[in-house]
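User: I'm new to structure prediction. If I give you an amino acid sequence, what do you actually give back? Let's try with this one:
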Amino acid sequence: DDGLQLKLMLELRSLPAAAEEPLALSTRPAWILAAILLFLAGNIALLLLFSIVMRVWRELGQERRDRFRARWEPVLHARISGDAVPLPSLAPAERLLFLSLWLHLSGYVRDQAADALVQTAHELGMPQYALRLLESGSPWKRVIAMRAVAALRLERACDSLWAKVMQNRPRSSLTAVRALLQIDPERGFAALEHLFKYQEWSPGAMVEIVRAGGSQTVQKLAALLGSAPPRRAKQMARLIELLEDQTALPALRERLESSGDE
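Assistant: Good question. You get back a string of structure tokens that encode the predicted 3D arrangement of the chain. For your 262 residues, that looks like this:
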């Protein structure tokens, strides 16, 4: 009897521990699920916060650009019209905004109006700023700088532009060639030859660039048809066709008649 009682006592003592073990196991999945849900909720909250911050940042940037345009557009339009109105102060942080607006307006004017915009840019020190911007680490800033030095006809930029052509980066190289053609047509055409020699470019992408060099550049391009390898000649012939420059047609016709490259 004593042995039976001892056995019963041992079994009764083990019952709570056995009951607690399933309970402990059942709480673990709940804690894991709660941790996962908390992690997901935190990430969603961060994404929402980031989205709100970016939206506010964009709106503030747009408001800043709108205020800048409202202050400077009337002044630049007056300068285009020939009125020697005084220039507002231009903060260093606003120079890129000014350059973008100036390039936009420069695309719509010619002759004396264009000269007036160039003079305004010189008064504000834009040539020096554009030259520094050429070496910027930001690709889109470099593109703006290349367009600016071309519009300002800055010969000091030619070495830097040539270096960018040699880098063979699609957008940067094409923009640099266009700028060189506008500043120094001879060097620009040499850069254009380099592009044709080492890479294949879409003729459609090259049309406006070659057109920036004028009829003289088109004629030089046509003169290369006679000595160009068949594959490159086909590319150049297509480009000349898209340019629709009548002065290049004789050279184009001669090349097509003397070979079967078409």
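You can read the tokens as a compact description of the fold. Here is one thing that stands out. The chain has twelve helices and no strands.
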